[in-house]
Amino acid sequence: MLIAEDGENLVSRNQPIAQIVRGRFWVNNHAHIVKTNALADMIYICYTLNHSNISGYVTGSAQPKLSQGNLNQISVALPPLHIQQKIASILSAYDSLIENNNERIRLLEQMAENLYKEWFVRFRFPGHEKVGMENTKLGKIPKSFTITNIGSIIQYYIGGGWGNDILSDDFSIQASVIRGADFPSIREYNVSTCPCRFHKTSNYKSRQLLEGDIVIEISGGTAEQPVGRTILITQELIDRFEEGRVICASFCKLMRVNKNEISPYYLYYWMQYLYETKIIERFQLQSTGIINFKFEHFLNKGIVMIPTKELMDEFDTKVIPILKGINSLARENESLTRQRDLLLPRLMSGKLEVM
Q: Is 9 within 8 Å of 37 (Cβ atoms)?
């Protein structure tokens, strides 16, 4: 989404954007900085540029931008100012609803994390008053809990794949791919950033993500963002992909737990806690500027605290509806985005009358 800064006001119809925009105009993954003058509405111009194909005019790789010369080559047709403002108001209403849903998603995410910490970090789970504590390698934990190594509760794991960008006899299965870069969006049940690729049948079958799987990022980390991030695969998430076909990328690993031993929901939040507290960094290896994850060492030496099955089941009954709520809001945002994007060209072209 473009972000407009306050600016002066000036412009008539069908003029080069350079005569509308004043000041810097930077292009990156997050925002364009725009200043306009008096006969142009800033928000309208932002939406117009969002809808326009301006990628061919962008220069620079480290910090892409539009030069003044290129701005002179981009023209926009401006309706009267009050029409611009009406169009901006209609489209902004959709974005406001989307942002409200995003905030609700963030609150639900925080609610699930707080529930985990309340029960399994502060040990204030239902009935905790009746459970004694004992000293362990993890400090004092409830006597009803056990500690084991990660490898003992993982029944299957495999590295991800990448496939091919072209359909062929060998690469005949079409499926989406979740990369480490997609993790933040995936946690919010937004699958729009995941590329779709073609895979060998055998590679896809061995890597197909199923409900309850946990995907961990094992390569490509930095000092600011260590590897070890995880995502949980739920059926609602799988259903977001075409025909439910999805695998994780090469720099990730699929972990499938023994559900008789541990809840995948509980293990996911345990992994989140290890990452948040930086305990996960003990299993990192840095070479040639790239940080990798010592996965086999993690399976052998990493440990997990396991509550009683009854408590994990109760935790699941609390957290699953929260995740379903996040998915529902994400679906609503997908619908709102689609409606907004269908409206935008019709409003801009004048095919849809604005009074």
A: yes
